[in-house]
Amino acid sequence: MHRLGIRGKIWGLAGALLGVTCVFSAIALVGIVRLADNLRHTHVLLDQAETAGQIRDDFVQAHAAAIEVLAGDSSRLQQVTTYLGKVSDSRRRITAAFLEVEEPARRKPEQAAKFNEVVDAVESYGSVLARARIGAAQEAGEILRQELIPARERIAAELDRLEGELREEARFLEAEGARLAGNAKLFVFGGAALTLFAGGVLGRLTVRRLSRGFTQVATAVARIASGDYQSSVPACERGDEIGTIARNLVDIRDKLRQAEADRAAHGAAEQRHSSLVEELSQRLSELADGDLDARIDPAAYDELESMYLKLCEDFNALAKGFTGLIGS
User: What is the model's pTM?
Assistant: First the structure.
């Protein structure tokens, strides 16, 4: 037997749809959180790559100015100092950039160590340059060829490699972010579409079932209204409002059937009363005409009240009295 009423079914349907929506929303929310973390880490990687490129550019500018200083142009010494100072100051940017990564697994301390090694190498480059400046021209040339130029190549190559690694990882994360964004969009719109579809299907099934029950009850009402009190009423076993209506209709049908039976019984009794009156009138006429054998059989009216049976007996006694009187 169905236990839920129409309101209960509607609330149950709404709860089921809400549950489906919550599941898809939760999955989409997890994807959005992962996407936000992905975008944040991508930004950090790009910032680190930009720092590596800036260190390389500053160092290359410092090296170009250092060559001119060693060639005798002392006016470029301030530029060398400025560019090398920028490289030294970048150590703080490197530390801050790597600390922005919240997940320890993504901090990659080996890259931070490489950055610091490069900055240390640049600072060593400055010390070698200072040694070359105070030496003789021939010694300065040897230091330039044997130490400064190779140092410039090593440092620039290492910075290029670091920048390339960081940008490659950032591109990988961008691709992963696009995938996460697509998945989140899929779950958001897919969940909405599935919820609408499921709501339409379940709603249609519910409406169809309810309309079928109403149609059955309406048909039963029409039959009873036409006087068919013997027909059955469907949907009485349901536990919802339709079942309540059907059971109430059964009560009405039974009462109408009983009233019809009472009316039929009353009509039959009236007919028997009329028959008794007619027979009594006929027997009285016969008795008046001298037929002393006129009698009324009380057994023919035994379904009537006792007063009518007494009337039959009184007539028979009267006829018998006339017969005795005339016989004497």
Answer: 0.52
